[in-house]
Amino acid sequence: MSAIPNPIPIFADENWRLPSRGRVAMFCLIIGESAIFTIFVVAYIYYIGRSAYGPTPQILDVPWFNTVCLLSSSITIMFAERAIEHGRIRIFAAFWALTMLLGIVFLAGTAIEWKRLIYTDGLTIRTNLFGTTFYSLVGLHATHVIVGLLMLSLVMIFTLAGRVEQRHTERIQVLSLYWHFVDAVWVVVFTVVYMLGK
Amino acid sequence: MADQTFPLPGTLDASRSRGAALLEWLHSWVVTVDHKKLGILYIAYALVFLLVAGAEAIAIRIQLAIPHNHFLSPELYNEFFTMHGTTMVFLVGMTIIFGFGNYLVPLMIGARDMAFPRLNAFSFWMSAFGGLFLYFSFIGGFGLYGMGSAPDVTWWAYAPLTAKAFSPGHNTDYWALALIVMGFGTLGAAINTLATAFSMRCRGMTLLRMPLFVWLMVVTSGLTLITITPLTAAQVMLIIDRYLGAHFFDTQAGGSATVWMHFFWIFGHPEVYVLILPAFGIASEVIPVFSRKAIFGYPAMVAASVGIAFVSTSVWAHHMFTIGMTSVSNSFFVLSTMTVGIPTGIKIFNWVATMWGGKIRFATPMLFCTAFVFQFLCAGLTGIMLASAPWNWQLHNSYFVIAHFHYTLTGSFVFCMFAGIYYWYPKFTGRILSEKLGKWHFWLFFIGFHVTFDTMHFLGIMGMPRSIYTYEPDRGWNTLNFIVSAGGIVQAIAVLILVWNMVDSYLHGPVAGNDPWDAWTLEWSIPSPPPAYNFATEPVVRSRRPLWDLKHPNDPDWKYER
């Protein structure tokens, strides 16, 4: 009876494809990170208007320039991904550097904003609930930007050393996923802090 | 060329001293990135802390055995029940599931290692040092009462008790920081497990052919991603409160203690499913093998597991019925909690249906799994009682609650972990654990468990609250408390038998061979213990029971499965 071969192929060997482990892992990390941000965002929303004293969100200026910088860095990194996919390392390096620059401008903008809040408006993390939730939520996002920039600069160093080639496309794309995530989170933070909460 | 000899790295040098060999052996464990060694490290680490937290439990029970006892000081008592809970959940539970997962997931899906071996080692050492850090609190820092600064704010650490004003010293900091560190370790392990299961499967191992243990590890890791992270976030807030003077949980400045409760239980309730799902996985491997039948309703089992994970994320506030939520919230959480009963009911039905008509061999792993099915059913029934808000108002924070969750965590989780140890110990070490000692272990633990935790239900109904240092002799709790404590001692003896069994069988046990249980999953197709590379050739799988297909070429599973 075993002489009859199974007529239906159980699987086709040549079609055995599995998802890239780097991508799976990065998506998992992003899911986990989203949960962290969710908790901080929920805390922010819950405490809107509950400060017993001290400055309120009215003192915030909407950081349009920062936002445009950070969101456009998602576009430049996409061009960088395309460039390396086609093996154009110089273009890749240029767009990668531009992405980093936009990220740094964003951080500098946050620093200027915080300096004004601390010295002009007297808002620190211990002033009141608004200070507590504002600095921790925006600071959590800024921390992610810093971590992203550190990783981007590692790649930049390798690129300048001539070690990044077309075959590293997938790793670059996995890293870019993280950067896209950081930008996407900013959309949420921006909406909650500067649009709804103000 | 033929007469040339090459020095092989790692070969034994006869002239080396014993001490150097020992050092090299230790070194090989410290620097290892092999999923099998890391799995054993995880499990060994969990078992060590099982003994530690068990000793704490025994100390608690001696303190409560008779009224007005002074076996422990009140301060040390608080530290002990906090550390018992924290240790059992994070250092024992979380590590042992990822220990089994680490060892077995790559073997079961025919892979040579986890997806990220170095991340794997990193995760383990994060968890390990987190645990050591937590226990360092007993000797580190300036303890308030000369007992060190062990956490003493209960394992759920409600605000505002954790605020600087009410918990000076570093007790709470040790708790939060150690758990943040371990949280990152766990997150790494979960990501690694998911990437392994999705991206490292051997040819033909489609998702719906993965062994149920792998499926349950996938579900549990997915749940971990969204469960551990809220706790990490809440603990970061707590640390910001304590060190930077922020006001998240500071009621004086408009902060809310209820928010902490919500955040903690958003973690805390899915957490018990994170623990119990791998236990389901072990039961789903052991029960079919020892009933000599394929698992009943495999797709339903997978669907039920995913269903439990989904439902479990929306039930957290059933820990908080007594804080006075709106009746709409109460009804929602009552209903969502009771919904959990449906997928778990499917699972229990399928396990029983697998046993039904099977040719059951009551070896030790099967004994533990059989007891698990029965006890998990009881735990589910008391769970449904507690899910009902009015009943919960009456029994909140009583020993009934303690009895309920020890039924799930000891009676279900620990029983399955013991089953897993007896089942896979031959694979880990190449030796079979003694069946005779195993039966002693099982029966003593089973009897001790029921003496302790069945009795606790009555204490709870009689009104004994949890976390109390001692009680008045006229409450009518004396006899029952003494029985509970006596049962605890019996369980401790049973666990010591397991330890002795593991040591003795490692040295003198019968040699296991590849496949001592006549099982069907891929890990049994290779030698015990497996070589570093696992599979000499990459296996090809055509059904859910690849070894059955090999052993029964005339009657393979793939003829029937679709």
Query: What is the H/E string of chain A?
Result: HHHHH
Distance between the termini of chain A: 76 Å
Question: Gyration radius of chain A, to the nearest Å?
Answer: 22 Å
Series of H and E elements of chain B: HHHHHHHHHHHHHHHH
- Helix/strand-derived category of chain A reads mainly alpha
Structural notes for this entry:
The complex is a heterodimer of chains A (198) and B (562). Chain A has 198 residues and is mostly helical. Chain A has one domain: Up-down Bundle (Four Helix Bundle (Hemerythrin (Met), subunit A)). Chain A is 70% helix and 0% strand. Chain A has helices spanning 21-46, 64-85, 89-119, 129-160, 169-196. Chain A is elongated. Chain A starts with 20 loop residues before the first helix and ends with a helix. Chain B is an all-alpha fold and 562 residues long. Chain B has one domain (32-559): Cytochrome c oxidase-like, subunit I domain (Cytochrome C Oxidase, Chain A). Helix content of chain B is 65%, strand content 0%. Chain B has helices spanning 18-30, 35-65, 74-108, 117-136, 171-199, 212-244, 257-291, 298-312, 327-339, 341-355, 364-387, 389-395, 399-429, 435-461, 478-508, 546-551. In chain B, helix 2 packs parallel to helix 4 (117-136), helix 3 (74-108) runs parallel beside helix 5 (171-199) and helix 11 (364-387) runs parallel beside helix 14 (435-461). Chain B is globular and about 70 Å long. Classes of the chains: A mainly alpha (198), B mainly alpha (562). At the A-B interface, helix 1 and helix 4 of A face helix 5, helix 6 and helix 7 of B.
